[in-house]
Amino acid sequence: MKYSKIFGKTIKTVPSDAQMISHKYLWQGGFIRRFSAGRWGFLPLGMRVWQKIYHIIEEEMEAIGCQRLVVPTFHPIEIWQATGRDQAFGEEMLVIDDHHGNTFAIGATAEGMMVELVKMFSPSYKDLPIEIYQFSQKFRDDKRPRGGIMRVREFMMKDAYSFDKDQAGLEKNYKKMLSAYKKIFNECGLKFITTEAESGAMGGSVSHEFMVPADIGEDSLFYCSSCKEYFKDKSKCPKCKAKLEEKKMVEIGHIFQLGTKYSLAQEALFLDEKGKRQPFIMGCYGIGVSRILSSIAEVICDEKGIIWPKAIAPFDVSLVVLDKSLLPEALDVEEALEAEGFSVLVDDRDEAAGVKFNDASLIGNPYILVMGKKYLKDKIIDVEVRATKKKHEFTKEQALKFIVKEYD
Fold this sequence. Notes:
Blueprint: H1 21-28, E1 32-36, E2 39-42, H2 44-63, E3 67-68, E4 74-76, H3 77-83, H4 85-89, E5 94-97, E6 103-106, H5 111-119, E7 130-139, E8 154-164, H6 167-187, E9 193-196, E10 206-213, E11 219-224, E12 229-231, E13 245-259, H7 261-265, E14 269-271, E15 277-279, E16 281-288, H8 289-299, E17 301-302, E18 305-306, E19 317-321, H9 327-339, E20 344-347, H10 353-363, E21 367-371, H11 373-378, E22 381-385, E23 391-394, H12 396-407
Parallel strand pairs: 3-7, 19-20, 19-21
Antiparallel strand pairs: 1-2, 4-6, 5-6, 7-8, 8-16, 9-10, 10-13, 11-12, 11-13, 13-16, 14-15, 17-18, 21-22, 22-23
Helix pairs in contact: 1-8, 2-6, 2-8
């Protein structure tokens, strides 16, 4: 892909309200743009990262047998009222009336809708467990959106739901989802912490948060440098009694054991082995695509820009061409890399070398290849590993073998 053809280029200016690194780099790198407070669009580079995260989540959901579907974004308000969640969400909930006089909550989450959907099929114990999920836009009228796409009013969420006949079944599904979430975050390259959490407005008895240490985080955990563990309580370490250090955290995922909170309120029942009606035992499991993306940009970076993990980088390789006469040979290199399954962003712009180098570092693709004077003279390509800043000098064939080996 020629960079000259990409819609949305790098930019030097920084938004006046950009207090987070991720906000600054994603804006300058041409990944996102704002339309109004808390509402953002993803440009082509941003969408490439977004889609890779999306597919990682999708693959892990499918791997554990969770089936994908989708429910409407407008929820009949009566569903929210049945569980009292309209009051729990309060002013963050967006409500709209249609031309027929019907009132709808614009989806902030979808537990109630999923319960109504499962009720339609009057399942028995033989049909359980049911494990379903969707990707859908969520809307929350947050009073203080901030940090670019870190905290927003409109965002894409993967929300999954399990319906079981008993607590043992719920716990089995919960553990399965807990493991899947860890795989997702590991594949995305994040160093995260899993901790027990409050269920809040969601309800239920047990929940876990997945959190990433970041100075801009709004949550806190307390770290023991001796035991190398995190705790919710700020008092002394319960193991070694050492003083704990407060660490700011960003939440990247949250899962809940809901129990019968929704099934009882919405009269969602199944027939058990004795033919008696029982409420479903539910779990729900949420993860935000854009929150993962912004968290990675926030914590996996340096003074030059983002350092995307290989699995989610917009391109595998940035190929910087410093002499127009080399473009045909650069396109041959691109073709050779693509034949091996790699994606390549060829910087063919008529810009100074320094501009191209800076932009390649800002965009953050895992490998930066440079074709310039050394290639004109000796057919040598400079190769930089973005994450380590290690530099090499290779022939075309050596560069190809190096990248293939790096991805093995």
